[in-house]
């Protein structure tokens, strides 16, 4: 964290008037974070302080390089007041969205604007030291290519699938071969404050803050990828649960089958309603004599990727379209259960399978109508993700940003 930013956010060895001044400065930053721009009169009223005091605090924040004068506000008469806002270049945050076969990584500025993003960087996620080192290599390469000074990068937010405890920085699904928290291990390597988050929760938060969500406060985000995840927002806040493991939607024991899920149990929703299930069903159909354009274009189905089936569906491959509809109907049954429990304002469909658009949305919508209670279902909108691949990156950046502010007691 840059020195001046740290001094504003830290209360270390601070008391009396100095403590109160820092509290007021943090309140000004927090107010601008929500409003975008404000006048001295706004700060005076919001903080319940005198105008001379507000002016003094604003001038100090300008000298610190954290806020700036954005010009005069329009006025019908009298002296026009100056509008102040955050300095975008004062601090930056990196979001790393780790997927099964790729990494999306981006940089967010202090005003929460996405500065740059690299999508679909080749990568293979495995619970191995080699995979861990490759992830670190991708992050380091991204930082090295930035024009931003490293000392202005305040924090890194890394999204991983599976069980993540974002409070203590432990990952229980990937890279859990160190005694110390994974976040601490990465932080020591990068030299930048690092936080971990579950990928579905990060995507949900990114979409909530910068995507298609408008006034809705109770939102469910369905991450349809190789697995099946869920991000829950209750009254605008991410719901974590007691141990931070909420949202294991794909592991509801939904089916009476003998298919072993990646969690080790049988019958999970994920075994028949996910990207992994789609690939398995496709192979079974091909082995049973069904035809697909992929038979000619793919040398071997041993390493068939979800993206290949999606692209084939977009090119009117009927087998792929039919199987996506079958998967969608099963996911829809699961979402119907969630709607009956949560009665959300909005259900968002995201993740890799959301790229199929209406091919998966319409079967899900049909299943919701069939399996959820009509009075509850009528109150729940169903929409596709707006941010798509950017959702996880933006969410990771924003959640890391929030963590930094919370750790340093921003009011």
Entry summary:
This protein is of the alpha/beta class and 411 residues long. The protein has 3 domains: 86 residues, Winged helix-like DNA-binding domain superfamily/Winged helix DNA-binding domain (Arc Repressor Mutant, subunit A, Orthogonal Bundle); 131 residues, Nucleotidyltransferase, domain 5 (2-Layer Sandwich); 171 residues, Nucleotidyltransferase, domain 5. It has 14 helices and 14 strands.
CATH architecture of the largest domain: 2-Layer Sandwich
Classified in CATH, the superfamily of the largest domain is ATPase, nucleotide binding domain
* CATH topology (fold) name of the largest domain: Nucleotidyltransferase, domain 5
Tell me the number of helical segments per DSSP (H or I, 4 or more residues long). Answer: 14
Q: Output the helix-strand order.
A: HHHHEEEEEHEEEHEHEEEHHHHEHHEH
Tell me the helix content. 40-55%
Percent strand equals: 15-25%
Shape: globular
The low-confidence runs, each spanning 5 or more residues with pLDDT under 50, are none
Spatial order of strands in the largest sheet: 5-4-3-6-9
Instruction: Report how far the terminal alpha carbons are from each other.
Output: 18 Å
Q: Output mean pLDDT.
A: 90
Over all CA atoms, what is the radius of gyration? 24 Å
In CATH, what is the class of the largest domain? Alpha Beta
Specify the structural class. Answer: alpha/beta
For the secondary structure, the number of strands is 14
Q: How many domains comprise the coordinates?
A: 3
How would a textbook summarize the main sheet?
5 strands, mixed
């Amino acid at each position: 964290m840059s020195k001046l930013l740290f001094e504003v956010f830290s209360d270390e060895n601070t008391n009396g008037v100095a403590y109160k001044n820092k509290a007021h400065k943090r309140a000004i930053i927090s107010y601008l974070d929500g409003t975008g721009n404000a006048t001295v009169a706004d700060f005076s009223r919001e903080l319940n302080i005198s105008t001379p005091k507000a002016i003094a605090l604003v001038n100090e924040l300008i000298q610190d390089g954290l806020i700036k004068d954005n010009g005069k506000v329009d006025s019908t008469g009298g002296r026009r007041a100056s509008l102040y806002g955050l300095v975008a270049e004062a601090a930056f945050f990196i979001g790393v969205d780790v997927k099964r076969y790729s990494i999306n990584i981006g940089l967010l500025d202090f005003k929460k604007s996405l500065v740059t993003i690299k999508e679909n960087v080749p990568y293979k996620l495995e619970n191995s030291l080699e995979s861990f080192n490759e992830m670190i290599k991708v992050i380091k390469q991204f930082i090295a290519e930035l024009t931003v000074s490293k000392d202005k990068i305040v924090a890194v937010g890394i999204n991983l699938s599976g069980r993540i405890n974002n409070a203590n920085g432990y990952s229980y699904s990937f890279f859990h071969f160190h005694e110390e928290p994974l976040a601490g291990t990465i932080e020591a390597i990068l030299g930048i404050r690092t936080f971990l988050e579950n990928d579905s929760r990060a995507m949900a938060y990114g979409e909530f803050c910068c995507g298609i969500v408008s006034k809705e406060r109770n939102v469910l985000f369905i991450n349809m990828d190789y697995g099946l995840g869920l991000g829950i927002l209750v009254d605008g806040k991410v719901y974590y649960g007691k141990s931070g493991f909420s949202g294991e939607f794909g592991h509801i024991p939904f089916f009476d089958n003998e298919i072993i899920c990646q969690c080790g149990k049988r019958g999970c929703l994920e075994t028949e309603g996910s990207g992994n299930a789609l690939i398995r069903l496709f192979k079974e159909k091909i082995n049973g004599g069904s035809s697909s354009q992929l038979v000619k274009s793919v040398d071997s189905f041993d390493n068939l990727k979800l993206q290949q089936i999606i692209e084939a569906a977009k090119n009117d491959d009927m087998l792929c379209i039919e199987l996506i509809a079958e998967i969608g109907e099963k996911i829809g049954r699961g979402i119907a259960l969630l709607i009956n429990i949560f009665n959300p304002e909005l259900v968002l469909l995201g993740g890799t399978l959301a790229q199929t658009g209406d091919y998966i949305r319409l079967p899900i919508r049909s299943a919701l109508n069939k399996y959820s209670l009509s009075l509850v279902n009528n109150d729940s909108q169903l929409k596709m993700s707006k941010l798509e691949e950017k959702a996880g990156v933006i969410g990771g950046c924003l959640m890391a940003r929030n963590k930094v502010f919370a750790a340093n007691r921003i009011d």
